[in-house]
Amino acid sequence: MKITGNTILITGGGSGIGRALAEAFHKLGNKVVIAGRRKQALDETTAANPGMASALLDIEDAASIRQFAAQVALDYPTLNVVINNAGIMRPENLLAQPEDQNTALADAEATITTNLLGPIRLTAALLPLLQKQHQATIMTVSSGLAFIPMALTPTYNATKAAIHSWSQSLRYQLKATNIEVLELVPPYVQTELMGSAQAADPRAMPLQEFLDEVINLIKTQPSATEILVERVKPLRFAEQNGKEKYDAFFQTFNDAMNHPH
């Protein structure tokens, strides 16, 4: 991926990793458009970064995504980078299911719609525009939890594992086109994805430290298909150590994440 001179759309760009990426790419000389469903967060981000644009997007609404993509093609005909960053992460106790099954599954269904169907739908809607560009990039955001699940958030892990698999297939299908497919694999980062406690959790990677390493990797490894900071590699490559060591790591990792800090 070239680092400057792009027109970049970032979903979930009003907070967390999305906002950090948006501000970094904005400073590097790209036209950045952030999208999300919280107008206040979008407005605060664009106000802090003159020249950055925003657009409302309900990533859970299939019809809304199609309308959004059509408007983006009109407003930003040079769009050549899409970063599918929007996501939600909710704890689920699979044993404590209420009698109302609709309530029980609401978090799981919202997570799948946002984290998996959202990127699939938005990418499909924007592919015709991306194919018109000289060079284009689709970046998906998975997670280290795609490779070592955190049992507290089962559906989140599953959607990120699915995004990893989907990204591989998309990359293969687009290999003869002008569109590259990159996968950003964050570790546990200090954001408010799981609430304010996560942003201050000393076990999590500081957001600025994560961002600096990501931008450096994009600059120095332009042909890499997976963007892996050092902190996420033990999760990403855990299976290479064999099932016995993987199982032990899974146990230790989940015990640690469930232990109050």
Query: Distance between the terminal alpha carbons, to the nearest Å?
Result: 38 Å
CATH topology, anyone? Rossmann fold
Can you list the strand order of the major beta sheet?
A: 3-2-1-4-5-6-7
Helix-strand sequence: EHEHEHEHEHEHHEHH
Describe the 3D structure.
The structure is a single chain. The chain is 48% helix and 13% strand. By secondary structure, the protein is α/β, with parallel strands linked by helices. It has a single domain, classed as NAD(P)-binding Rossmann-like Domain (Rossmann fold, 3-Layer(aba) Sandwich). A seven-stranded parallel beta sheet has the order 3-2-1-4-5-6-7, sandwiched between helices. The longest helix is centred in the middle third of the chain and has 31 residues. The protein starts with 6 loop residues before the first strand and ends with a helix. The model has no long low-confidence stretch (mean pLDDT 94).
